Amino acid sequence: MAMRFEHEFTVPVPVEQAWSVLLDVERIAPCLPGAALEKAEGDSFTGRMKVKVGPITVTYRGEAAFENVDENARTLALRASGREARGSGTANATVTARLRPDDAGGPGRPGAEGTAGTAGSEEVAAGSASSVESGGTAGSATRVTVETSFKVTGRPAQFGRGMMGEVGAKLIDRFAANLAALLEAGETGPATADTVPLPPIPAPESAVPAQAPPGRTASTPEANGQGTAGTPRTDGQGRAGTPEANGQATAYRAADGRKESPRHLTAVPSPTETPEGSEASREPERADTPETAGASENLAPVTELSPAGAERAAGRDTHPAGTSRTSLTADEEALDLMEIAGIPLLRRAAPLLGAVAGLAVAAWLTRRALRRR
Amino acid sequence: MIPAPFDYIRPASVEDACRVLADAETAGDEVKVLAGGQSLLPLLRLRLAYPSALVDLGRLPELRGVADRGDHVYIGALTTHDEVMRSGVVREHVPLVALATATVADPAVRHRGTFGGSMAHADPAGDLPAVALALDCVFVVRSSDGEREIPAAEFFVDYLEPALEPGEVLLGVRVPKLGSGWGFHYEKFHRTAQAWATVGVAAAVRRGDGGTIEEARIGLTNMGPTPVRARVTEVALRGVAPSPSGSNGSDPLRDACAQADAGTSPPADLHARPDYRRHLARVLTRRAVGAALG
Amino acid sequence: MTEQLDAGLVAGRIAESGQVSEPSAEREMGRARRRKEDARLVTGRTMWTDNIQLPGMLYVAFLRSPMAHARITGVDVSAARSLPGVVAAYSGRDLAEEQGSLPCAWPVTEDIVIPDHPPMAVDEVRYPGEAVACVVATDRYRAADALEAIAVDYEPLDPVLDMTEALAEGAPKVHEAGNRAFTWKFAGGDIDAAFRDAPVVIDRAYVQQRLIPTAMEPRAVVATTDGDGFTLYSATQIPHVLRVMLAMTTGIPEHKLRVVAPDVGGGFGSKLQVTAEEVLALLLARRLGRPVKWTESRSEGNLTVHHGRDQLQRIAVAADRDGRIRGVRVELLADMGAYLMLVTPGVPLLGAFMYNGIYKMDAYDFTCTGVFTTKMPTDAYRGAGRPEATFAIERAVDELAHELGMDPVEVRRRNWITREEFPYTTIAGLTYDSGDYEAATEKALAMFGYDGLRAEQADRRERHDPVQLGIGVSTYTEMCGLAPSRVLGSLSYGAGGWEHAAVRLLPTGKVEVVTGTSPHGQGHETAWSQIAADALGVPFEDVSVLHGDTSVAHRGMDTYGSRSLVVGGVAVLAACEKVKERARELAAHLMEASADDVEFDGGRFRVRGTDEGRTIQELALAAFAAHDLPGGFEPRLDAEATFDPDNFSFPHGTHLCAVEVDTETGRCAIRSYVAVDDVGSVVNPLIVEGQVHGGIAQGVGQALFEEAVHDADGNLVTTTMADYLIPSAADLPEFTTDRTETPATSNPLGVKGVGEAGTIASTPAVVNAIADALRPYGVRDVRMPCTPERIWRALAEAEVTVPAQSRAAVPSTSEIAPEGGAR
């Protein structure tokens, strides 16, 4: 099982400061919940990591090392590989981080990966302005892009219920959140997993007022188009009628196994994970359902493709990355954004994903509308 | 399929159990409570869980049984599914519990698996957590510090994580009687008879004198890391006059259930991806509500 | 002791004790006997392999690769060795010198690539679950615990998961020699002529998903040695083949190796194998000098029992406008998995002669390429090649019917071999000996209520009922009863297809039948008893059947391919006939008559025209006493026989399935299922019924539920039964079954195989029904298993969003044109 996640956020410290923190593994390691550094020698480290979900416990022991540390480009990669302490399974992770000075717009500005084409740019801008305060000053902020991929083998990977997806999304989410907090804290001291508040599960009660009434739409037609344009015609047709096109079922790869959660991360299948003719591309995620297709009384669908996923998909016209998506309807995504609006960390992180920010506006509008009632 | 070694402790009383759990907590040992074992033992055998000890509550009669307590039915945590679904008290006063319990796995599992065990395992794919949520059940737990009550809305914290502190034992669950005028249904969608719910909908609906819906409670199974209430739909159903879809194709129930998936974050697994689960939630909620209305 | 042992005296004593039976008059053939073996099987009072306990026995646990594909850079078993109770721990390297290579007995082409297949991986693992180390301990718990102490270092390599990609230039290689194992071609008639200017061409691609055979009894092995010879107990279908293969593989001389298949709880082809665990158990017993046992867990089995199916099919059917089929062209990619096991490459070719189905045509062309991937090897699974073939042709014929606006039954009628045309040599070169497709189909249609269901279907379409009705037709035949040794030889199979039986009359008149078939749930003990009882005129209860132990049943070719009755059962009959002839000779001698004047009736030999007679039981005792025998007559009434048929067996039938598809949720429920099978003469209708029911269930499993799924890294994610779904009785309708009887002409019993028929027939019946239900929505196909989600997505992606009953029943010319030019 492979998973890949991307996080992007801005911290109000200069790049140099963030960079030095990033190189300090003894401070970075605790950002990963359950991780413990045992030994550090130069650029390599040994440690263990305990993953715990309810009664399930998997402990990995392994090594990690910095790779491709490029001080000029402010990029680095941390590669870790581990083996289950008590089983035969393995886990491999690569964390790639990139820092860039964020002079212009503060945290609200969509990142390069965060734009869903030109769609809804107005909303995005509005979202930045209206729903989020500016968190940094020109020249003193750093935009951080963290890309995490990991692969798991062995027993934890051998379940169709997507256990590791559930766990993995959570873990990486917390890691990014903790990392952001650590970088922001900068020289003032190390952050630990315990000190950073995590996005709570939205309480059901509070869900009510944030819901959009039927008929309210929050999507952009272009985004929607992108979601469906990639739909390949397959079964029994033309080229698709060849065995090649029908492909081999390598279903439920990677990001697909990830829990679809209202968190601010983007699941992106790595290039090797979307072979031609894969199940994923033959059965693409639909933004839509047969029942509600084009029905005006229903919520217009939001594209299932995440911005980054859509971008990738566009470059692979016949086989869109059907596995990449954040399948949230506008109002519920919004709901979650509003929920976490009180948490400074995520308030900064969230709007950087353009489409997501767009949704935030819709949510904000929705909530206002409901309040007026 | 052989678990790693563990100690086996069978306390003589609930107090005993609490003490054992508290001691383990102090010592930093990882101890698990064993009820019917239908969820825990497979994890042990697959070596995905390595508790140092199991505390078996199976021989504590005080945790077993169903009681009519006026405004609610009390179900002891160790009551088996089979006992629950056959209980006259449950069937009469909280029929939704009986309906959902009857869909749990298969007879062999229902004879061993327990009501409290299903709840404490907090598997969002389990059928009973959604029912508990829909009915606003109250969980009665005890530790060596004493008893406390946890409302269902706070009990299911996350995937496989209940709001039980280490050292706490679930004693039982208070299932409120909803009074007269209510109809119930549990709509389970699964691929084979023994499979977990792909999506499940627990519905309780009260119709007013005029025939319109006055109140609805809907719990969803396997639509997120925890069971969830379909609050938007509950609100939307208020005041709806259910009528069979007319020749013009209108179906007020369906319209009201069109956002049954709002606020959920359904998982992706082998049996369904999120968009399909969302769709199922909408369709099945309509069906569950319709069936609850009779 | 002066009393002479007198035959009459002994007979009298035995008679007093109530042990001698009277000859039996009632015919056993065709009687719905309850299975005599079931009581011990279902109560567990029998010897399953895992029940075997031997003094000093040790337990083996295997450490299995978590990786689909990796180089092994180090295995450290030292920590495991030092744990209490652990007797030994080995890596593949430790065993490399003596473990040899697992055999492939079916090199289908001259240039086939048969990679070395070490039972325990040494340098490289090529599928998830491949054994990389083992622990031998004093109990199974310690063995399991000690696995955690073994450290293996892997250097991950790219997994090879997709057959098409595997064949592409520059693809990662499973083996040095490349990912193409073989390409096998077969043709009859002029295929180009058949397709040239064909008015209608149906060109379709189907995916035969990978299945995991799920026998009720997991695999288990016990190996023991007395210092001289070895005994291997295994939950296997093939004790005899296994013995030969193990002798060749391990170097243990054949005469020093006894293989026993105790009672075995199902196989479905999955136990038609020489497994790594069997070889390794023998090696460990040899090294350690103590008995060793290994029993797999279900999740271990899902990983490492050989898998089934896994083919990408492309089938093109050329036809005239009146529905007459001109030719069929088939291209297959067959997933071999990582290695070629016992008959891996042969499985798709068992279907090669079946893509023409029951139909007449001018030309046929078949190509199959076997492809290596980093998955568990595939091999025989119930039907082995024939379900795939039947699925493709029956799906395509339904599509043809739709293209022509014809009833699917009518299209079949126009093409099938008529009853007058038997024996009929097909375009694939097989001679179907007998059959009556008309009779089976008529019966099935009537039982099904075909016309009524079609009317209801039309009505639901009219009403836009969210629950649509679909009707699926499958008129199948299959070649089974493997089979003529000559033919198997011509297909490069490593062995013959004969079967052996021995029949022994015991002194008390009881009968022992020794069979070379190896039942694992089929009820051979009952059926063979019925055959022997009729042939010898003894009561059913007086027959016992011995099997599965190479020291008891020393010759045999075992059980697979629906061969047991049509080859092994016939051998039992032949042996009985030989015994009878010996008994006739003895009877004639005792009655002082010419053997020609002695007739046999109901267990009694009688001098024609007199009351003078001897029962077969009396003769058994007389032979035992040997006081008065004809000159040169050996004192026994035993005989052996070996039968090698000169043709395959061709059961056939018509299966009809009605499904209700909930278009809102995608759920598909089978509403009714009718199967009329023609398996020739029937020995035991109850057993036939059971085989048909189970077979249909397994075929429905492929259609609706089962699929082995790997993720993008090659992890198998269906390792438990929570994820690999097999249907239970609760998920299936009541099957309505009946039979027609067209006796086979290729054997004296007139019987045909039945073990695989239900599985072969039912999968296309179900999927045809689903396609039929969804066609008005513009859905052309749903990939198996047709899960609710897949059906829902197919509906969502279809062109037509409302049922279009107005859609022309007879398509326009443009619609008949070959699809998408993919010809």
Automatic annotation (TrEMBL), chain A:
Superkingdom as given in the UniProt entry: Bacteria
Coiled coil: none
Entry annotated with the keyword Membrane: yes
InterPro entries: CO_DH_gsu, START-like_dom_sf
Ranges of compositional bias, category Polar residues: 217-231
Basic and acidic residues bias spans: 279-289
Pfam families attached to this UniProt entry: COXG
Keyword field: Membrane, Transmembrane, Transmembrane helix
Compositionally biased residues, Low complexity: 112-142
Record region (Disordered): 81-142, 191-330
Name of the protein described by the UniProt record: Carbon monoxide dehydrogenase subunit G
Organism from which the protein derives: Streptosporangium sandarakinum
UniProtKB/TrEMBL annotation, chain B:
The keyword Signal belongs to this UniProt entry's keyword annotation: no
EC annotation from Swiss-Prot or TrEMBL: 1.2.7.4
GO molecular function, one term: FAD binding
Stretches for region Disordered: 239-273
Keywords: FAD, Flavoprotein, Oxidoreductase
Highest rank taxon of the organism: Bacteria
SUPFAM superfamilies with a match to the protein in the record: CO dehydrogenase flavoprotein C-terminal domain-like (SSF55447), FAD-binding/transporter-associated domain-like (SSF56176)
Parts forming coiled coils: none
Root EC class: oxidoreductase
Boundaries of every FAD-binding PCMH-type domain copy: 1-180
Identification of the protein by name: Carbon-monoxide dehydrogenase medium subunit
From TrEMBL, chain C:
EC numbers, comma separated: 1.2.7.4
Molecular function via GO: anaerobic carbon-monoxide dehydrogenase activity; iron ion binding
Chain ranges of the Aldehyde oxidase/xanthine dehydrogenase a/b hammerhead domain: 43-158
Spans annotated as Disordered: 12-33
Keyword Oxidoreductase: yes
Keyword annotations: Molybdenum, Oxidoreductase
Presence of the UniProt keyword Transferase in the record: no
A Pfam family this chain is assigned to: MoCoBD_2
SUPFAM superfamilies assigned: CO dehydrogenase molybdoprotein N-domain-like (SSF54665), Molybdenum cofactor-binding domain (SSF56003)
Basic and acidic residues bias locations: 24-33
PANTHER family hit by this protein: ALDEHYDE OXIDASE 1-RELATED (PTHR11908:SF132), XANTHINE DEHYDROGENASE (PTHR11908)
Protein name as annotated: Carbon-monoxide dehydrogenase large subunit
Species the sequence originates in: Streptosporangium sandarakinum
Lineage, broadest ranks: Bacteria, Bacillati, Actinomycetota, Actinomycetes, Streptosporangiales
